[in-house]
Design goal:
Strand order of the largest sheet: 3-5-6-7-8-9-10-1-2-4
Number of domains: 2
CATH superfamily of the largest domain: Aldolase class I
Number of strands: 12
Shape: globular
Largest sheet: 10 strands, parallel
CATH class of the largest domain: Alpha Beta
Low-confidence stretches: none
CATH architecture of the largest domain: Alpha-Beta Barrel
Order of helices and strands: EHEEHEEHEHHEHEHEHEHHHHEHHE
Helix content: 40-55%
Bound molecules: flavin mononucleotide
Number of helices: 14
Radius of gyration: 20 Å
CATH topology of the largest domain: TIM Barrel
Structural class: alpha/beta
Length: 320
C-alpha cells in the first residue's frame, strides 16, 4: 500500500503521552509524524504557573512536532493561554471538545459542551478573532446522542478551523462499543472542514479498514493502539522492522523507566506510571496473563524491575 500521504498523529492520552513518553518513543520507533499533547486546562488566573505548560516546553519537544491542546469554556481564559502558547512558538492549537469524563463534562467542558452548539458558537465567535494561533477541534459525535453532531457541524462551518478530529463515539459511551464509521462518513459529508480520523485503530487490519472506507482521509490519530503495539505506526507506514521486536520493546521500556525514575519523586509514582503502560502493552502478548498480572502486582521498583526482566527473559509471544 502506498502510504506516502498518510500522516499518523499520536493522540493525547493524559497520564501517558507526556513529553517524556513522546521523546523516548521517538528515540525508539518511527512512523509517527506528529503528536497532540494531552490537554492543558484553562484557568481564571492571569499568571501562568510554569508547571502547567512544562509539558509543551519547546526546548524539550524537539523530537516530535506537537500541537498543544486546551480544555476550557471561558473565552478570556482560553485567549490568555492561547497567547502564551503563541509566544512560545505554537502557531497551531487544539480545543478539546471530546473529553468524556463526567466531572469535566458536567462543567460544560470537553464533550459536555457538545450538547450546546450555541455556546460553542459564542465561544468561537469571541475567541477566534482574538487569537493569533490557528485552531482545530477534537470532538466526539455528541455527549448523549450521536445526533448532536448534526447541530454542531453547521456551527463549525462558520469558522476557519485547521481541521476537525473526530472520534466517532458519544461522550457517554466513554470507550465502550465501537467507533461508528457510518457516523464518521455522514459527518464528513455534512461539513466543509477537513477531517482527521480517530478511534480504535489498534492493528494494521483496523487501519486498513478505516483507510479503505475513507480514501479521502490522510490523517489518522492513534492513541491506545500505539500504547499496546508501539510498532503499529511502522507497520502502517510499511517500514521494515529489522531488529528483534522483543529487544526493541525491552530497550524502549527500560528507557521509559529510567526517564520517569529521573523525574518522579517517589517509587510509588514511578511504578504506577509504568504499570499504566503494562495495562496496554500487555494486550499484545499472548499466553502471558499470569506474568503480566505479577508485574502489575509489584509493590516496589526493585520487584517491578525483576519481574519485567524475568518476563522478557522467557521470550514471551508478542503478537503486535
Ligand atoms: C487514558 C486516556 C487519556 C486521554 N487523554 C486525552 C486528552 O488529554 N485529550 C484528548 O483530546 N483526548 C484524550 N483521550 C482520548 C484519546 O485522545 C483518543 O481520542 C481516544 O483514546 C480514541 O482513540 P484511540 O482508540 O486511538 O485510543 C484520552 C484517552 C485515554 C484512554
Amino acid at each position: 500500500m502506498n502510504n506516502t500521504k498518510t500522516r499518523i498523529i499520536l493522540a493525547p492520552l493524559q497520564g501517558f503521552t507526556d513529553v517524556t513518553f513522546r521523546n523516548v518513543y521517538a528515540d525508539h520507533f518511527s512512523g509517527i509524524d506528529e503528536a497532540m499533547a494531552p490537554f492543558i486546562s484553562t484557568m481564571g488566573q492571569k499568571r501562568l504557573k510554569p508547571s502547567r505548560i512544562k509539558d509543551v516546553d519547546p526546548e524539550k519537544n524537539q523530537k516530535l512536532f506537537i500541537t498543544p491542546q486546551l480544555l476550557g469554556n471561558m473565552p478570556e481564559d482560553f485567549i490568555f493561554l492561547a497567547d502564551c502558547l503563541y509566544d512560545m512558538g505554537y502557531k497551531k492549537i487544539n480545543w478539546n471538545l471530546g473529553c468524556p469524563h463526567s466531572k469535566i463534562a458536567k462543567k460544560k467542558r470537553g464533550s459536555g459542551l457538545l450538547m450546546y452548539p450555541d455556546l460553542i458558537d459564542d465561544f468561537l465567535g469571541r475567541v477566534l478573532p482574538k487569537i493569533s494561533n490557528t485552531l482545530s477541534v477534537k470532538i466526539r459525535l455528541g455527549r448523549k446522542s450521536k445526533k448532536e453532531i448534526e447541530q454542531l457541524l453547521p456551527v463549525l462551518d462558520h469558522y476557519p478551523l485547521d481541521e476537525i478530529i473526530l472520534h466517532p463515539r458519544t461522550g457517554e459511551q466513554m470507550y465502550t462499543g465501537v467507533s461508528d464509521h457510518d457516523a464518521f462518513a455522514a459527518a464528513m459529508e455534512n461539513s466543509r472542514h477537513c477531517f482527521t480520523y480517530n478511534g480504535d485503530i489498534t492493528s494494521l487490519a483496523a487501519f486498513n479498514t478505516v483507510s479503505t472506507r475513507f480514501p479521502g482521509i490522510h490523517r489518522f490519530m492513534i492513541g491506545r493502539g500505539i500504547l499496546s503495539n508501539p510498532f503499529l505506526a511502522e507497520q502502517i507506514k510499511g517500514i521494515i522492522i529489522k531488529k528483534n521486536k522483543l529487544l526493541r520493546l525491552k530497550a524502549f521500556h527500560d528507557a521509559l523507566f529510567e526517564n520517569y525514575q529521573a523525574i518522579f519523586s517517589g517509587p510509588g509514582h514511578l511504578i504506577s506510571r509504568m504499570k499504566g503502560f503494562w495495562n496496554y502493552l500487555g494486550l499484545c502478548f499472548s499466553n502471558s496473563e499470569k506474568q503480566i498480572k505479577n508485574i502489575l502486582k509489584a509493590k516496589t521498583a526493585e520487584t517491578y524491575q525483576d519481574r519485567v526482566n524475568e518476563f522478557f527473559n522467557t521470550d514471551p509471544e508478542f503478537a503486535g
